[in-house]
Amino acid sequence: MNLVECPAWASWGYAPTDGGVRMAGETVKCEAICLDVRPWSRTSHVVAWLTPHGRIVTLVKGAVRPKSAFLGQYDLNYTCELVYYARSRGDLHALRECAPICLRAELRGDYRALALAGHFRRLAADFAPAGPDCVAWQAALADALDRLCLRRLSSAEAVGELLRFELAVLALMGLRPELEAESGAFALRGERRMPVDPAVAAYLRDPTRPVENVRIPLDAARAIGVFYQFHLDCASDVRRTVLGMICKKQEKQGDR
Questions:
Q1: pTM, to two decimals
Q2: How many alpha carbons lie under 13 Å from residue 145 in its C-beta half-sphere?
Q3: Which of 145, 175, 174 is nearest to 50 (CA)?
Q4: How many other β-carbons are positioned within 10 Å of the β-carbon of residue 90?
Q5: How far apart are CA 84 and CA 82, in angstroms?
């Protein structure tokens, strides 16, 4: 079945980018990060990956059968070593072998980290290009996911990680915003400016530095959200939900 005809893939909202890179019938071996897993049938999955040469989608036949060799070998946020048969442009690639390299199991114990990981994967799925440039995207996503595994995040730290990856994505796309801390302005395009607090502009220059007041990273996140909408026409609903989740229970528990 062609991807255009595949409802399980079309409903995801993004398409693979590796269709023209590999010859049909070629066996490909690479490391990949699992972006999404969807059912294809009662026993099979369609799995999206970020590889060094672009986003791909593979069909995993019999993935959930009791004796399947693929049981426990892949899941969201895993980095895996894949062997797949490349098919013609627009087709599902056939996954033949899969072995996990990095499971990142720590994410499952922190709802903030898990919410951020889903947001990061979606950004990579939406914007990562095909070809050799995707190597840097894969490295950026892997580094961001690994950082989320290091410790439980406070609200301020979680917003800082969100900004750090979003700014990295903009840099990879050649769109990193111009920040004018002295004038308290946030450059959008040309002469257009959005006023921001100097403390917010300073934080955007280095979102890794610790802050006591969570409102500073939140205001910085709102500024970057405007930038994403202005330049990339991104829907803000999902991002707003992620921000709400990572800041949840802040006032009740005194979490900063």
A1: 0.85
A2: 28
A3: 145
A4: 14
A5: 6
The residue to which tokens 């796309």 are assigned: 173
C-alpha distances in Å from residue 107, one per residue of 8, 76, 116, 141, 151 = 26, 10, 10, 14, 9
Q: Which amino acid is at 99?
A: A
Q: What angle do CA 210, 211, 215 make, to 5 degrees?
A: 140
Q: Give CATH 2.40.50.140 domain extents, the chain.
A: 3-105
The tens digit of pLDDT for each residue in 104-127 reads 999 999 999 999 999 999 999 999
User: 251-256, long-range: CB within 8 Å, 24+ apart, which pairs?
Assistant: 255/154, 255/155, 256/154, 256/155, 256/156, 256/212, 256/213, 256/214
- The answer to whether residue 185 scores a pLDDT higher than 90 is no
Mean pLDDT of the chain: 84
- Domain 3-105 fold is OB fold (Dihydrolipoamide Acetyltransferase, E2P) (2.40.50)
**Residue 160, exposed/middle/buried by CB under 10 A (0-12, 13-18, 19+)?**
buried
